[in-house]
Amino acid sequence: xxxxxxxxxxxPILRWASRYNGAAFTDDxxxxxxxxxxxxxxxxxxxxxxxxxxxxxxxxxxxxxxAYAIFxxxxxxxVGPVAVISLMTAATVGDFADGDPERYREIALxxxxxxxxxxxxxxxxxxxxxxxxxxxxxxSGFITASGILIAxxxxxxxxxxxxxxxxxxxxxxxxxxxxxxxxxPTMLIGGGVIxxxxxxxxxxxPLLMKFGVKDRxxxxxxxxxxxxxxITTIALVTAFHLADSGVAIVGATPKGLPSLTLPxxxxxxxxALLGPALLIAVIGYVESxxxxxxxxxxxxxxxxxxxxxxxxGASNIAAGVAGGFPVTGGFARSVxxxxxxxxxxxxxxxxxxxxxxxAMFLTPLLFNLPKATLAATIIVAVLSxxxxxTMKRTWRYSKADFAAMMTTVLGVFAFGVEAGVMAGVILxxxxxxxxxxxxxxxxxxxxxxxxxxxxxxxxxxxxxxTVASVRIDGDLFFAxxxxxxxxxxxxxxxxxxxxxxxxxxxxxxxxxxxxLEALETANRRLKxxxxxxxxxxxxxxxxxxxxxxxxxxxxxxxxxxxxFDAMSALDHATFHPVAPVNxxxxxxxxx
Amino acid sequence: xxxxxxxxxxxPILRWASRYNGAAFTDDxxxxxxxxxxxxxxxxxxxxxxxxxxxxxxxxxxxxxxAYAIFxxxxxxxVGPVAVISLMTAATVGDFADGDPERYREIALxxxxxxxxxxxxxxxxxxxxxxxxxxxxxxSGFITASGILIAxxxxxxxxxxxxxxxxxxxxxxxxxxxxxxxxxPTMLIGGGVIxxxxxxxxxxxPLLMKFGVKDRxxxxxxxxxxxxxxITTIALVTAFHLADSGVAIVGATPKGLPSLTLPxxxxxxxxALLGPALLIAVIGYVESxxxxxxxxxxxxxxxxxxxxxxxxGASNIAAGVAGGFPVTGGFARSVxxxxxxxxxxxxxxxxxxxxxxxAMFLTPLLFNLPKATLAATIIVAVLSxxxxxTMKRTWRYSKADFAAMMTTVLGVFAFGVEAGVMAGVILxxxxxxxxxxxxxxxxxxxxxxxxxxxxxxxxxxxxxxTVASVRIDGDLFFAxxxxxxxxxxxxxxxxxxxxxxxxxxxxxxxxxxxxLEALETANRRLKxxxxxxxxxxxxxxxxxxxxxxxxxxxxxxxxxxxxFDAMSALDHATFHPVAPVNxxxxxxxxx
Lengths: 591, 591
Description:
The structure is a homodimer.
Chain A: H1 5-10, H2 13-17, H3 22-49, H4 54-59, H5 63-71, E1 78-80, H6 83-97, H7 101-124, H8 136-159, H9 168-178, H10 184-210, H11 215-223, H12 225-240, H13 267-298, H14 305-321, E2 328-330, H15 331-339, H16 346-361, H17 371-383, H18 388-397, H19 399-415, H20 417-437, E3 440-446, E4 453-455, E5 467-473, H21 481-490, E6 500-504, H22 513-528, E7 532-536, H23 540-547, H24 551-554, E8 559-560, H25 563-570
Parallel strand pairs in A: 5-6, 6-7, 7-8
Antiparallel strand pairs in A: 1-2, 3-4, 3-5
Helix pairs in contact in A: 3-6, 3-12, 3-15, 3-16, 3-17, 5-14, 5-16, 6-7, 6-13, 7-13, 7-14, 8-9, 8-17, 8-18, 8-19, 8-20, 10-11, 10-12, 10-17, 13-15, 18-19, 19-20, 21-22
């Protein structure tokens, strides 16, 4: 192959396809089969969360997987509809669809397409770092709260009643109003499936192993429990004509795959979807990359973060073109894919073929599937997202992080997913701004017997009565420019006899123009008060930058190679060099 | 006086009023007289920029000054209407007033009131640090662009034509359309005043000094040139009945002061005004504080930044109650106040009395004032805001800062003030996020003959083939958590024989939960690859926090007091202690 490096980076499939062989094929095919069996009920269920007909979940599990197989860098990640993104889709699309199901599907397609464009654009601009601004406590709080919100939203299907609401309070109120209409057969099906699924989690694998099934096949079979529940409840509904007695069923589902279509370009709608789409894109990306990195670490593989943006972008564009809705990498199915032995992204493509097969031939069998069964699989799946352990741990580790987490949780409960996550993001950025505006700083003095200068609050040090010195631990830039100016000026309080202020620059790697101007202002303010400003231990690149300005000409004091040089030059009486051998003098002006 | 400290902090007037004496009174009164003479034309002119009748400018220069005298901490700051804030007021109010002048005034009042509430709230919450996120290049670009935009917006009054537009392009297009209707007498007045004002700037003071006037009185008299221009052109219009021949005049102006009223509470309007009001508040605050700090430095006084928020808040609330519009501290008038010898904030209160006198008795004299005269004083005033020197200097110092500046300038020109400054703020926060997501880091090795470990790229150092060590220079938190994880894992590339990775923590002052989880993940990923993770030089508070988590139990490697201890323990063959006397061993685990 003569494909250049850049093209292979763009489509990693070109890198591994040429080495693809029979052994990898067999492994991938087996993994794909197992994931397909797990993904069919998940796809149907998550479509329900998104407020879409169940077959749309299958469509969302075909083309996007092929796109990821071409562009993705994880050998184990399985993409498709996931619970939290489906919930966000429902919250977004519901706002614009006016209750029209046809319109609802169109908007879901457009949303997937826009999410894809945003992800691809972020990847092209190498803006993956934006995902850093969802802090872990906020993501964790968001997922826990979403899990509870999703489970609450499914209770109506288990009760067999109509209810609505975007927030926990709204859902609870609506459920209370309709509770008296609860439908017993539906509740029995839903409750039975929930009980069965919880039972299989704990007992099915040991039971199978008792019957001689080996460890891994037993675990894999236990994963098929939701499919078993679906088959069983379809059989029950069919045998006892439960649909006639009021059990809500999925009903007629189109056979085959939808033809590929570009979503209609409707600028006012697209503009309105941009904000929610950005949120979905970022949350989907963060979740997916976490899963991919966890699994890649086990095989010592690398995930390319910018390429992942692009690959998830392609997957969502594919979802928007092929009749789906927003997708991302799912945790449970990726772990199954990994455990089942998937060796290349081809496993994802094979899974897509399996799902496409299901969409083409099996949908008529879904006619009698009770909605309560899907709701039950959702409830069991999402309640495992609820993570009280992390909450407890956060509380113990940091009250500030806990506050951010609870803001997100309560935001989601009270105002819904979008408002909740926005509250979390705004709080994250706010905390960042706050932190950036006050870097750590320390007044320093000489550690006796050395030429080291350390924090006066932490060490027994020698200080001068006329020369005050402060070390600022961080780059100087616009966010802390005012802090810098105030800190320097405050080093020489009126009437205390301070004649010189030394800024120890050992921890400063850059100074932007705002900080430079703050330095100039501080220099001028100190000068007007009769105090000289000096710098010590300025690093090379910072010195180069300062030389491009007039600051060094205006500086009232000097620039010293080391803090000791500065202090001993300015207060010779107090600071003495260490004699005779002095390793500390080997300190160049770079830390 | 027995007033407690907290109350005196809240209203600094209580601190200086008890020491107030005759000498201070005389100085303040003289300064107030001079500022009043300067402020009358400015107030009239800036009301014109804000799209309000000229007398509203006078109202905005009364009560707000009294409020600042009570709550402010600067002895020299003169508040009132300023050009840039007036422009922002016009841009905001114009969007909501639907061309109804009565409604326009009401909204301007509400806007001032909301700006005041926001400033007071920021002060109460001690959120003054938010102002840090307007970087100097962005503020400088914004003011330069606003100056040009304001001047362009006044050209219509000089030409005596009707024109409109919010952006430079819009104004230019509108002026071109109407240029053929230009009115010669108006142009002569406007052009004459501009020429006169520019002449006085350079030649009036020397001329006065030639006639024996002393330096300071000569400078002060030159400052009265705009008032002279106003008197002269009123006389011309009156003498030659120029209003009849088409020169636009100010016309009937109400006499007296408006009664105090609370703006009507109209929630949809208030909510819509919140965003623009926040911008006006922050920009006004930044400008005002810069002026106050510059002048305070000359007298070695201190400005209390949070109290200033509160004082400007009170001034704007006063403006909203007393018939004005948003105000802040102005540069030129504060310098005049300072130079004229103002000793306490009482000078501001005396200025307010002067302006109130003008509003009560002099407004009938303004009937024949040509609008072209006011426009001319505006143009001369705002063109001095255009600061090409800073632009050049920014270009030389930093291309990134220059890009931020030009984004703001072009944003203001193309889309108006609000969009321009928002583009600047978003860019600022974006740059901050970007910077925060990748702290400086360095692979380190031993400086021969010492126990110091330094950047391998900058020093000739000894490194190990099996132990890789990296120093990260900055606090670890959510914004750089992913960077941290990747950096640590990338230290042990597959097949290079690295068995241990040491994170040197000398520059790390805090680790939040997101970063802790990133450390845990990196530890797990490295462990799965058979590599141990160690920490060195962990500071006390960081160690305390780590002990509250399970991280230290899970850590595959150890925690070492110094980098040298870690490296020599892990690769004894490569790293040797320095003999015999070794000052560097005196290094405690705090930097």
